[in-house]
Amino acid sequence: MATAADPRDLRARAEVQARELAAAGVAGVTVGWADNNGIPRSRTVPIAALPDAATTGIGVTSLFAVFDSADTITYAYEGLATPSGDIRLVAELDGLVRLAGQPALAWAPGRQVDADGEPWPYDQRSVLIRQLARLADAGLSALIGYELEFGVYRDTEDGELIPAHHGPAYSPAALTEIDGFVESVLRDFAANGLHIGQLHAEYGPAQVELSLTATDPLTAADNQLLARQTLRAAAHVHGLRLSFAPLPSTSSAGNGWHLHTSLWRDGSNLLAGGPQGPGPEGAAYIAGLLRDLPAVAAVTAPSLGSLARLRPGYFAGAYRFWGVENREAPLRYVPGSALLGADHANVELKTSDASANPYLALAALLAAGAAGVAEKLPLGPPVQTDPGTWSEADRAERGIAALPKTPSEQEAALTGNLRIAEVLGKELLGAFLAVRRSDAEAAVDRETDDVLAGLRWRY
Ligand code: GLU
Ligand code: MG
């Protein structure tokens, strides 16, 4: 009997979808993924080729796993040290959508498999799928909500940062300056099946934030990529350019892509609790995140731009602690309330940005938290002020350290944490570290602003 995984079934389904999309005027399908720098990559094929793309896939080089943030290919990792090799990029039909802002195109997330269709150890999406299976084995599931902050600029030849809105922060006046863009975003997100929680002019010059309502983790990661594509298309028609970079320049506000998690067992939200914190299992989840935070942050905020963004006092989470509704905390517990209900409770990771591969970010996050639950880790009291304003001695007394500040501290945190290293797997970790080193080497002797300018439009 044919099953859902039967390639004939898949092909038949893709044929129907290709015919329908073609009849509606769609000419091609873009299959997207994110590399180890969080940079979206893609291949586009004519819509008639969708059945092939969804079954045997599209040929791409295996070297995307070792592209650095400037598209330099590093051969420093022994597993991918030659220019030889090809893999297949398979379009995932479950995520197929016609792009409202680019109506001649459909889009689907891609999964990378080896030339024979077997699992490929460098495929980031499979890392998350594997982690979600482990979570399910432990009787757990998660809901993930993303907040996306970005800068909106005029689209100019030289890529200079000319703000498209001028504040004030959170004001409708700022949004009026980019009214056409905001309209396109609202319409195109809805048409693409992306649910916006809210949208506002953020604190920084030219900055905008929107939140996506919570979904299962795989959908959240797929949707994060679709959201970027949808935003870019909306900006393009209005002569605007968006920077998703963690820090577009040293004088910009940082762009966090904060991750909200709630963890569920048997229909109960384990993050629910009282105004002071979650119940015991939710507390253990936060304790697990806190324990592994330096290694998790090396995946969720991995780039040179991420490190530049993590300044104390900027709500980016520079020190390792948790707090209740404390916006300076990398782990901010958001309690439920009488108004919103107990199940509104979640924990936000602020040390997260667009230079993270979303699949790897969620896999690392959930592995750390789930280990805390499995081990019933105790959680210390929350910190409700900003440790960045304390003396070094006070921080030492409370055991609050800065998160890694340099690429080598970051690498040590990741390689020194076997739990998180194992989530990525030996090969992917090797490639991931090779591109981090390649980025770091290319930045030696360069001014921070020069490095940030190089990353400004990459994500
Ligand atoms: N822009 C800040 C960041 O770098 C976050 C501000 C906020 O709390 O929304 O993450
Ligand atoms: Mg914000």
UniProtKB/TrEMBL annotation:
Coiled coil: none annotated. Keywords: Ligase. The keyword Phosphoprotein does not apply. Residues 124-459 form the GS catalytic domain. InterPro entries: Gln_synt_N_sf, Gln_synth/guanido_kin_cat_dom, Gln_synth_cat_dom. This is Glutamine synthetase. The lineage of its organism: Bacteria, Bacillati, Actinomycetota, Actinomycetes, Pseudonocardiales. It comes from Pseudonocardia acidicola. Belongs to the glutamine synthetase family.
